[in-house]
Amino acid sequence: MILVTGGAGYIGSHYVLHERARGAELVILDNLSRGHEGAVIDAPLVVGDIGDRTALDDVFGRYSIDAVVHFAAFAYVGESVEQPGRYYRNNVAGTLTLLEAMRDHGVRRFVLSSTCATYGSPQYLPIDERHPQVPINPYGETKVMCERMLAAFERAHGIKHVVLRYFNAAGADPEGRVGESHDPEPHLIPIVLQAAMGTREAVGILGTDYDTADGTCIRDYIHVVDLVAAHSLALDRLRADAPSAVFNLGTETGSSVREVIGACERVTGRTIRTVESPRRPGDPARLVASAARARNELGWQPKFTRLDDILATAWQWEQKKRY
Ligand code: UDP
Q1: Which of 119, 139, 166, 221 is catalytic?
Q2: Which of 249, 265, 293 corresponds to the end of one domain?
């Protein structure tokens, strides 16, 4: 059985549906601070915190868990700059408590949600897994620390891991069962779609003086359904006793903020009002993945390769959100 921390959150909830479709048994641990009860479909939910050792002992004692897929974390760059303590406590101390509980309960397989924010400002593009990790915001720092803890826990306690460094997760379940829902919403695509819906007046373009063709930040938007499929492949790899590994997950294509807004106008058929605004601290100008290693070693192949197709699923969700 798989323990999915953060399984009521955006990416975790898509992962649960993907694993259930393969017939896997899972249990979700989520404190619902950012997740939604409505996002839990077809798997038991334990409401609890990864930093609560008693709750962890209870879950590991009650279910026969052989692997942990760890989504539970705070993941907003801007918030991490303003409130670093929350990030170090939840992401670092929380993951440490989880790893210690795994050690004590004999669970030896771990998949970590990591991030391209661990690389900092790119020294070259596209970014491969050998790129130096010099994060420029506390969010990225916390994920580097988690990666380092995993290496130490493998050496000392034999916990095998796969680290998945996500680029920008986007889109929603094409069947409309789950999707992205944050309050307040910090992410570009839902903000732009809310402006298209009319539930938000305008989109602030956070920085128009970056060293890019149109002056706005470039990101690699990867469909959440493709992202979660890689977790299943990672788990298969761990169960086949392959060595621990690190993989980037992205489409290998960059889109600027202005290009995302243009694509949203195409997909929604609506005009979106924009306001040029100052840069958000902690944002590098360009992040684009090389995902060759995941393709070659995991056999991973993203199905959504066009930004418009990714946005179409996000738009469908935004119009019919269930939570
Ligand atoms: N962004 C923006 N306006 C917004 C929200 C985000 O221009 O209202 C920009 C942000 O500066 C970044 C990109 O959009 O360059 C993606 O940001 P998001 O928060 O979606 O993802 P992140 O890259 O922080 O994980």
Answers
A1: 139
A2: 249
